[in-house]
Amino acid sequence: MAGTVRIGDVTCGPGEIRFGSIHSVYLRDSSVVKIPLIVVNGVKNGPSLWLGSTVHGDEIPGYEVIRRVTREIVDPRSLRGTILGCPVQNPLAYMDSNRLTPQDGININRVFPGNPSGALTERLAYDLFHEGVSKADVVLDFHSNATGAVSFTILRSGGKGHAWDEQWPLARAFGITIAVAEVGHLGLSGMLQDAAIAAGKPALTPEFSGQTFLEEDSVQAGVTGTLNVMKYLDMIDGEIEPQTKVMVIEEPLTDRHHVLADKGGFVQPLVPIGEKVAKGQPVLHVRDFYGDIVDTVTSPTDGWVITYPRTGNHAVSTGDYIVFVFGP
Questions:
Q1: Confidence band for 1, pLDDT divided at 50, 70 and 90
Q2: Nearest C-alpha neighbor of 315 from the set 267, 268, 283, 259
Q3: Average pLDDT over the chain, rounded to an integer
Q4: Chain centroid to CA 72: how far?
Q5: 202 pairs with which residues across the strands?
Q6: Rounded average pLDDT over 270-290
Q7: Average pLDDT, stretch 74-82?
Q8: pLDDT of residue 102
Q9: E strand or H helix that includes residue 180
Q10: In the predicted model, what is the mean pLDDT of residues 111-140?
Q11: 159-163, 209-213, 252-256: which range is least confident on average?
Q12: Average pLDDT, integer, range 99-110
């Protein structure tokens, strides 16, 4: 028989679902920021699985994945182990629909495992990680790219040991495209996934499409992938199911390029998302207000167009992300 789970202000007995929060930083009106929790505790022993979303406040599809898994699909009476769900991991960024924490402009997914004496976002990261994520055995941190993007799972490379190696079977079970990135590559360090792996916990970062709204096919892929991981971990019964709602590139993608804009203007894609491209092939034009081409961006590698990032209008300034191209 599984035991009682205590996390944040939640106490959840076997066969129960309970709701609460982790109390974290304080704001100028003296109110405390509460990081929401959904705890589903099985009746039999098994691993603890962290399902987190919306570390970036403008990336919400993972919220709906967590809601469906915890509130509609998984019955705690037939669950082995525990789901620790955190539908909004950075409530401050979520309230502002912002990738960054508005109070200090910090990207929380670059400062994990946090600092209890640091800036507001560093302290929020510390509380989220040490009071929440650290209670789990396995971690899924859901993120999202722009509309129509190829959904993919980030694996981290550059280390050795169980937590590093176990990423692969977890990602294969999840079932969407796999993209491998070494810690620090493209400036990606201090991720929640990094901190979890460093703490000995296998962790993945699934990236869905949709970003600020819910694309049904992407959400369904997230639900299927999450349930597949739970089946792999023997938390629930059933066979691992193939992903049928989103495009899946079968070979792992290790040559990742996040291309930045040199010129500013409106973005005109020339290649559909998910299409294969050759190195040097034009993938988009940048046009000025008058319709003239001010720049043509070519693919930096043989690979696939994964997404055309956007913030607000599909336009860019110098230094903005303009296209992601991943190669094998």
A1: low
A2: 267
A3: 97
A4: 21
A5: none
A6: 98
A7: 98
A8: 98
A9: strand 177-182
A10: 98
A11: 209-213
A12: 97
β-bridge partners, 89: none
CB count within 10 Å of CB 15 equals 17
* pLDDT for residue 10: 98
Query: Letter for the amino acid at 121?
Result: T
pLDDT score, position 77: 96
**Closest listed residue to residue 51, CA positions, set 175, 298, 227, 257:** 227
Q: Give CA–CA dist 99/188, Å, rounded.
A: 15
pLDDT in tens, 19-48: 999 999 999 999 999 999 999 999 999 999
Q: Which two tokens stand for residue 132?
A: 């929440």
Cα gap 267→60, rounded to integer Å = 24
Tell me how far apart the alpha carbons of residues 310 and 216 are, in angstroms, rounded to a whole number.
20
Long-range contacts of 121-124 (CB under 8 A, 24+ apart): 121/90, 123/24, 123/25, 124/24, 124/25, 124/33, 124/35, 124/90, 124/92
Q: Which two tokens stand for residue 209?
A: 């499409």
Residue 252, CA distances (Å) to 72, 278, 317 in order: 32, 17, 31
Residue 245 and residue 220 in contact, taking contact as beta carbons nearer than 8 Å: yes
Query: What is the Cα–Cα distance from 51 to 79, expressed in whole angstroms?
Result: 15
Overall average pLDDT of the 116-142 stretch: 98
Distance CA(95)–CA(143), nearest Å, equals 17
**Is-contact 195 170, C-beta < 8 A?**
no
Residue 70 Cα to chain centre, angstroms: 18
Structural tokens at position 189: 């360090």
Gyration radius from the chain CA atoms: 20
pLDDT at 189: 87
DSSP 19-80: EEEEEEEE-TTSPEEEEEEEEEE-SEEEEEEEEEE-SSTT--HHHHHHHIIIIII--GGG-E
